[in-house]
Structure of RNA-binding protein:
Amino acid sequence: MPLTPDRKKALRSLGHNLKPVVTVAGKGLSEGVMEELNRALEDHELIKVKLMIADRELRHQVIGQLCEQSGAELVQEIGKIALIYRQAEKPDPRLSNLLR
């Protein structure tokens, strides 16, 4: 289900102080990157991803692939940082960025 504008606004405010937990570099979306991304989404639900890709169009395509493959939704994209969200099946209150 797509995020509503009000929900995106709330998630953006929560994501403001987060640090990137996954970095996508020159090799793109490798299997290891996707495993780490899925683990981080399951633990934290709302994460920042840093993309070390210079070309803006390629960066935008990688973010689209990343969201599609992980089942996450893009909340915000600013420069080389993407804020993405995927609701966890069993959120852990100690790890989730939404339940703190």
In short: The longest strand covers residues 46-51. The chain has one domain: 5-85. Strands lie at 20-24, 46-51, 73-78, 81-85. The two ends are 24 Å apart (CA to CA).
